[in-house]
Structures are given as structure tokens and as C-alpha cells.
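cron nightly-structures :: item 1 of 1
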Amino acid sequence: MKSPWISGLRSVAMTVPDLAAAEAFYTQTWRLAVAGRADGVLYLRGSGGDHHLLALRGGSGTPQLLKVTLRARTAAALEAVARAATAAGGVVEQPVAPAVDPAGGMALVIRDADGRRLEIVHGDTRRVADDPLPPDQPVRLAHAVLNCHAVESTREFFEKALGFVLADRTRIMAFMNCDADHHSIALGDTDNDALNHIAFLMPTLDAVMRGGGRMKDAGMPPQWGPGRHGPGDNAFNYFVDPFGIVVEYTAEVEQIDDSYRAGAPGDWTWPSGRIDQWGIGQAPTDQLKQAQRRVLFAPAP
């Protein structure tokens, strides 16, 4: 199971109302590192090979999602996606051209019919991953979950425009695969088109738990978890950051290949009162549920 064009999720770009406070939180508590600054944007990296995982720009009010960046397998894939996105009902917002961020490479920006802005890059700068990996620092992004008021049409767009494949379908979510990770994008079956959450891959299960303790010490305890999901089999802890963005520490994401068969909602059910495999952690709070509806894609320029 893999996309012919997309190899994975690289980064997410957002606005935040206080860039200095965001830098303090994401470096001191969430444990990312500063990768660079350019044109009023702060770039934050993990311990892995990606130049950056978050690009944060100062902006008033509620945070907005500027773009989700995916990495293309080849340079030719950029033009292929541009053609496929148009045929699937999307719009090419920026044709293939040199990327504007410090990671460089070539980039294409598309939008689907509901305004989700997706950047696809190839040839961007990679760093040498830390060796050994720091025990409590995110390595890379694991996935981003996007709410969808029309999840099946959004799923169809990701399949036709980007070559994603359905890995599993639950009652409330479609998990979309592009490579070995069970999912890099998931589509939440909701009545809105907000950012549901961004998941950061930790090196170990122990790191997920220690990160949760660090967040609790900082006055931001888990809003869901700890637990272990069904689809993807990944361990998790969910939090709401100081700006109302839902972020997740995760580890042990299931690795799949062409032998994996997608499950249907009936394959992913839990005993009464349980919403994950373990059933020991905090259930999703009202604060989490509200935050999962708040951060929307910025409108087209």
C-alpha cells in the first residue's frame, strides 16, 4: 500500500497569536529545536532528517492552518499531482516552482474543493538525524488529521489527486496510507473542516509517557490518554497547546505493506465504555473536542 507520488508527511504551517510564546512552548516543553527563521516565520525541527516539522507565523486571533506539506517521491511526481488534482476537482494554487521556505527544493501548492491547502515538495534539504536519537524529543511528524464535513469526497480527492490508499475505515475516521506508516493523513467524519490534530512521532513508548509527564508538570495534562489506538496500533497522549492547537505524542505506529487489508467500521469496535485498546487513560475531554473544531485553513489569498 503506497502512493505512486507521495512518500510521506513532512511539515505543517500555521499562524499563532504569540510567536515568542510559541517558541518557548515548542522548544522548552514540547522539545522541538529551532531550525531557522525567515520572513517572520519560525521553523522548528525534530531529531530526525526533516529540515522542519512546524512553520509558525505570527497572526492575530485564533490560529489558522496555512498548509500541510507532503514530500513527493520524484520531481516528476509534482507535475503528475498537479494534473491529477485538477482532474479530481481541485485547484493548482501555485504551479511547480522553487520552494519559498529555507528547506528549498521544488514545490507545488494545490487546494481541494473545500479549501484544504496542500503543498507537495521534492528535493528539499534533509539534515543528518541525531545519533543517538534524544530519548524525549519528537523525531518527525507521524500524521495530521483533518476534519471533513464530506469525508467520502475528501477521501476520493486524496486517492485521485495524491495516490493515497484507504488503510482502515472506522465509524468516525478514514485512515489514509501513502507508504509504510499505517496512515500519514486521516480524515475525521465530522460537520466541519478544521484541523483535528497533529501527531509527533516519539522514539519510544517510554518517550510518549515521559513527554506526557513533562506536559503535566507544565500545567497541560493529557486531554486524552495515555492509550493505544486500534487502527495504526499506535500509543498516544493528546494535549491542547497554549494556543488551542491539538497535538499528540505517539509511538509504535504500525508498519504495513501490500498484504494489509483495510478494515471496515465493524472491525473496529470496543467494549462498552472503552475507546482504545488499553482503557486506562483520560477519555477525550470537552476542551479537546472543542479545540478539534477551532483551527481552520486560512482562506485563499
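cron nightly-structures :: done
DSSP finds five helices and 17 strands in the chain.
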